[in-house]
Amino acid sequence: MNISVVGLGKLGAVLAAVALLLWEFACPFTVRFLKWKLCLGDRSRSATASLLVPVAILSLWYAYHYSRTGYIFGNPDFFHYNVQATLSPLRILLAWLIRIWQTFGYMHLIVLTLLMTWAMTRPALKDGEVERQRIEVPVQGIFGLLILTYATAMAVVGGAVLARYMLPVVPLMIIIAVSTLWRRIRMWPLLIALTDREHRSVLHTLGIAARQIVLNPLIMSACAGALAAGLHIRLPVAIDNTLLFLQNAAAPTALFVLGVTVALRPFDRVPWEVPGVIAVKLLIHPLIVADDEAVDVRLGERHGSAGGDGQ
After folding, report:
1. In a designed cystine with 78, which of 30, 74, 91, 291 is the match (CB 3.0 to 4.6 A)?
2. Domain boundary assignment for the chain
């Protein structure tokens, strides 16, 4: 309980609460005069009043601090370093730019920001006939408001422009960026992997992906089978019979598992790729196989007739 109260009384919680409270009062005017539909909807008075809790807790702490020390915001040196010495227009502007960089570009975040900006130029993807949904615009507006509030407040106060002061709002930027990539780019997991600080380069990331592909058991078994067939390797009878047994059981087992999986999974709509897969599997693939068999028969007939003429 004490930890919760202390957390609500921190300056960061107060900034967020005050920003949200002011936005609740200002948002109806933006709808009326600017026609911006950025309001989250009607909120109860108790929910609005709850935003004053962090302000009340911090005010009580300042009152207690004043009663014990005679100062409200700490000793005069502390107040001078963190507030009075920072009230320079040029310093505030430079600090604000640094805060924006710490939110959107610091520690590889610039890669995620650039990818998000590029993704915004592409249309939204569709799952079947349904377009992938964005984070609601009012929610994105709240995220942007909190980021702007923190960047501005931390540019005005605070002697040291430390990146950790922006940690409360950096996750909001990451949520918007990842949501944008998911909504507009099919290979979004690979793009997210490229922004990981532990991956030293793009080649390192691609190497990890290639290693995972090569070490896949299905791919390894297929390559081993192709290699054995190409080199005409004959296995012992006991091993060959065991592999033949597993081969004959693989397809029925896979179909059974697939059927159970599909039966237990809610199926609201047909994915867009299903018709194409069905066409390839039931039409194109049989035609290719039939054509290959016809070619083999013709080659066999020619080979047989050539052998007969030689005799």
Report:
1. 74
2. 1-72, 79-215, 273-311
Count Cβ atoms below 10 Å from residue 224 Cβ, excluding itself: 11
Whether pTM exceeds 0.85: no
User: Do residues 219 and 213 lie in contact, with contact meaning Cβ atoms separated by under 8 Å?
Assistant: yes
Three-state secondary structure call for residue 131: strand
Q: Which residue has the higher pLDDT, 101 or 75?
A: 101
Nearest Cα to 186, choosing from 266, 127, 268? 127
Whether the pLDDT of residue 98 is over 70: the answer is: yes
DSSP 3-state of 240: helix
Q: At what angle do helices 137-156 and 11-29 cross, to 10 degrees?
A: 130
pLDDT digits (tens, 9 = 90+) for 77-93: 777 777 777 778 888 88
Residue whose token pair is 């430390």: 162
